[in-house]
Amino acid sequence: MTLWHIVLLASIACVAIKLAGYAIPASWLENPATARTADLLTVALLAALIAVQTLGTGQQLVVDARVPALAVAGLLYWLRAPFLVVVIAAAAVAAVLRLWTGMA
Amino acid sequence: MTAEPRAARSPLQVATRQGVAVGVATAAYGVSFGALAVAAGLDVWQACVLSLVMFTGGSQFALVGVLASGGAAAGSTAIASAVLLGVRNAAYGMRMKPVVGVSGWWRTVAAAWVTIDESTAVALAQDDPEARKRGFWVTGIIVYVGWNLTTLLGALIGDLMGDTRAYGLDAAAAAAFLGLIWPRLRSHQTIAVASAAAVIAAALTPVVAPGVPVIAAAVVAVVFGLTNWLGAPRRKASLS
Fold it and tell me: From the list A10, A33, A77, which residue is nearest B226 (CB)?
């Protein structure tokens, strides 16, 4: 698959899911187990992405400047800082650590 | 600020104001998506197509996140991550169908296209049926236009940056995901699911192909979802 195939396939699939929501009967989600699983799916995938994004480098686990950056991000969200401020702050922490301490 | 009394605002005006506020705030972080997409190896056009067509932030960040670690070889797992994260939009669609009350296929397609976290949230925050409809469309349209403009801007900036690690963009990606999950971490169940998923994904990273750890972590959601482990004993599991 080329990057274009990946981009187009994933995009079309996500639009199809949205359309399906308007096409399938509402009773499908009335089952609490189904509704709960759909909800928790989002949480599980995002958490997994955070772990891989923070510790993964290819197939290796690495502790580098991303870890303190994520810790700062967590602290800022806890202090109710806006999304964009937190994302920029996290990038700045990692960038400064790499520049000044030579951290990977 | 004018001394406009609160009571003078109609429910429609309130919905419009909320939609504009949420729309502008959300659209602003399209810049980070555009820059991260380019850092992951996509070109500016591919980043823009994702925002124009896929148009659901979590899935977009997930796709470029997996591509960043595994490249095009991780294509199928990248697609699967994006699709699984998009499943909640189907749930939103079912919820929004009676709210939007659309008739005609092109309006339904337009409504489905802009059915995302933000448009659903603003619509459901209103009490009046007309205000719900207004909130949905105002938020959806402003986020759509803004998100696409800022994606283009971010992609162009990312293109000029060169080595994006030097600017900490890889850390920005993790921070962005943390922001998306943060409002949902309000119950023991969601915190347990998030922790277990993160541990499983990290543990699997050295042993399986890039992208697979994220998909594998979805099993945690299925187990907790079906058993309602650590969930509220009765009624709905959580308000997240």
Answer: A33
Query: What local confidence, expressed as pLDDT, does residue B235 receive?
Result: 47
DSSP code per residue over A43-103: HHHHHHHHHHHHHEETTEE--STHHHHHHHHHHHHHTT--HHHHHHHHHHHHHHHHHHH--
Q: What is the ipTM of this complex?
A: 0.89
CB contact residues (below 8 A), chain A span 14-53, against chain B: 14-15, 17-22, 24, 26, 28-29, 32-53
Q: How far off is chain A from B231, nearest CA to CA, in Å?
A: 10
Instruction: List, in sequence order, the alpha helices (H) in chain B.
Output: 11-28, 30-39, 44-49, 57-70, 75-100, 105-113, 117-124, 129-161, 169-181, 188-204, 212-227
Q: Give how far Cα B49 sits from Cα of A9, B55, B69, B149, B155, Å.
A: 11, 9, 21, 12, 12
Contact B220/A83, CB-based, under 8 Å?
Answer: no
Q: Shortest Cα distance from B39 to chain A (angstroms)? A: 13
Backbone angles phi, psi at B239, to 5 degrees: -95, 5
Residue B238 has which token pair?
Answer: 């959580």
Backbone phi and psi for residue B230, each to the nearest 5 degrees, phi listed first? 65, 10
Question: Which residues does chain B have within 8 Å of residue A33's beta carbon, measured at their own beta carbons?
Answer: 225-226, 228
Asked if residues B89 and B115 have their Cβ atoms less than 8 Å apart, the reply is yes
> B100 CA to chain A: closest CA distance, Å?
10
Chain B residues whose CB is inside 8 A of the A15 CB are 53-55, 112-113
Averaged confidence pLDDT in chain B: 88
Beta partners for residue A57, in sequence order: A60
More confident residue, A92 or B183: A92
